Amino acid sequence: MANPEGTPIWYELMTADPDASKAFYDDVIGWTIEAQPSGEMDYRMIDSGSGGGSVGGVMRLTEAMQAGGAKPTWLFYIGVNDVDASVEKIKAAGGSVLMPAWDIPGIGRIAMVADPQGIPFYIMRGASEESSTAFDRMGMGKCNWNELSTPDQAGANAFYATVFGWTYPDKMPMGAMGDYIFVHVGDQVIGATMNHPGDGPPPAWRFYFRAPDIEQAAAKVTKNGGTVHAGPMEVPGGDRIIVASDPHGVMFGVVGPGNQGA
Question: What is the CATH number of the domain that holds 34?
Answer without folding.
Answer: 3.10.180.10
